[in-house]
Protein 1
Amino acid sequence: MTHPRDILLGAQAATAFLPVCDHYSGVETRMRKSLQLQAEMTEEFGTCVFDVTLDCEDGAPVGGEADHAALVVALVSLASDKARVAVRVHAVDHPAFESDIATIAGKVGHRLSHIMIPKVESVDVVNRVVSALAAVSQADVPLHVLLESPAAVHRAFEIAAHPRVQSLSFGLMDFVSSHGGAIPVDGMSSLGQFTHPLVVRAKLEIASGCHAWGKVPSHCVVTEFSDTAAMKAAAGKAAREFGYTRMWSIHPSQIRPILEAFAPSEGEIENAAKIIAAADRADWAPISFQASLHDRASYRYFWQVLERAHQTGRVLPPEAQGYFAATLN
């Protein structure tokens, strides 16, 4: 059987299976609980539905950076083979950056799903990270980068084009504060970040840059973590209106709302499964389905619906389940 991914996706196939949620934790107790929760939800859904990113930048106490990096190494080493564990290191101009890379990538780089690099301003920063990694590890770890300033957003397309970059994230709070008060504080809120023109423009630049190069745009945090309604509304806007296919979580209560917001509806999944099955039977030639013409362009869309359903742990119709039998993360 020729797999739809091989027939339809082309260059986009490399990013097809990133979970839609990236969960951050930096305190030891919360890091351990995050890894346990990931294992439990992987068992529940039959696939890994969120990444766990262990945070050095905001998690390490001042003066305790080396001990925190060692803790990250220990936790990654203890994680199961099915776990998807990443790390956010310090920014390249921080004194702890090189030791973070040497300690973490040098010892467990082969176990990391990716490394998040904060405060990336240009491709030169990405190249510096690549060089630092090459000096300590042979692991080809994907890089996720955080764009947090107007200059960084201006270079979003160029940064997204880098072959080691797998995903771009938007640093909302740093972006707003970098404007010297020109953007009001409401621009950081769950609602205001979708209405202020400068913030909206930045979000769209990052999403567009990612899609231009087949990379994954990852939406920023919602700080009102106890407000489930605000979380659902923001995640829904990010997924349906702003072109994001992944989102940060900073509290365990945000994970399931993100999964729900980024998941296709039951009707969308059922319709996509029928169209892909019919296309497969036709050897991917054009078909008529419910009085509408479909060819490889629309097949690609409906296949991506099924992939997103799988990524979010939705139940797939029987005719689609075989395509994912060997793709458990």
Note: The chain has 14 helices and ten strands.
Protein 2
Amino acid sequence: MYDVSTRKRALALVAQGRSLNSVSRETDISRSAIRSWQDRLAPLPRIAPQDPGPPADNEAYAYLLGLYLGDGCISAHPRSGYYLRIACADAWPGLIQECADAIVKVRPAVRVYHAQKQGCVAVTSYSQHWPTIFPQHGPGRKHEREIALAPWQQAIVDAHPWEFIRGLIHSDGCRITNWTTRLVGGERKRYEYPRYFFTNTSTDIIRLLTAALDRVGVEWKTLNQNRAAVTISVARKASVALMDAHIGPKY
């Protein structure tokens, strides 16, 4: 993009009777550009990309928001636009596909591709508008800055709390099977019981998860750990049954 003064200097040389070839060689500006300035001196105004509006699918957005808060990031393209990247472990191919499907449902016009990393796939998509779709984007790590939902995001999460919880569990959570032994009638028997865990260093993201769990009637507790990250545990039988009905293990 050449400024107006540069354009005027090039046209002044043409006005002296110089050929477009000689002016192009002297100024290192293409002949086609100089020729176009003879018809229009001022640069054309830049057209801002059109705002695509709200997510096309709110249910898919609630799930994608959970994935983004757990294992997602947005980075600027060197020239313009942004990349959305969601890291999904190689061990869960179904999760990788579901993440890609959610992105397309939220923004049908975008393209999605997989970038293989060590031990995981970065499900990636380019758009001018990812920071608008995820206003939690900002400099630094998520746990080092405030993470709060915009009112329109909160409305979507309130309408689809299970999809939001599911996205968070699929990113930074897991379903495991614990076991113990008990003495019954003089015989020691093994008992297995499932439970869910979610671990994150951001207290704001922990708060968003526990608020959603409260909303759907899931009982939870915080584990005592000697580290910065916080782990939420869901272990009561009725609550695990609810989680199994709406989330289940990764696949």
Note: The radius of gyration is 27 Å.
Protein 3
Amino acid sequence: MEGLTVVGHPLVQHKLTLMRDKYLSTKSFRLLLNEVGMLLAYEVTRDLPLELVDIETPLAPMKAPKIAGKKLVFAPILRAGVGFLDGMLELVPSARVAHIGLYRDPETLAAVEYYFKAPADLAERLVIVMDPMLATANSAVAAVSRLKERGAREIRFVCLLAAPEGIAHMRAEHPDVPIWTAAIDERLNDHGYILPGLGDAGDRMFGTK
């Protein structure tokens, strides 16, 4: 599907399988989410533009590639999205960070915003939105809409798991936002959770229910 990338790297797939196991400890789940976030960051930034700059090695001057333009903005959707953040910041420590606080109404499954804080110059930066699960996509759609309202023009979305329903919803509302995911699962259940999935990523990450 256009605008959708499934990251099939063996390390990503192996770590995802470990995370699906319901007997995995909270500590291990959190560590693996961090590691997978780093691996997914490699994929979502694969085509960043480069420019040649003049440097001097210990032996000779040369022209060498550096990332061109302003730094990235990582935008985790609270709370589970922060599980990706440390791994991505390990790769791009100079990135700015936006925080988008959303929770899912248990009755309507609609996304309800409770916090938003982002850099002022979103229009000049590539914004990478992250949330482990793209289920109904209500939160993802709301987050991207909010970022666009604040001026963001180039946005990418990264998740660990996606449901076909969530992908369809996201592509319908924001066809200009490409999606990266480690896997596309079968479907949503009656409560809007991904099947077979891995449960509630936030609860498993923080040890809550």
Note: The first strand starts at residue 4 and ends at 6.
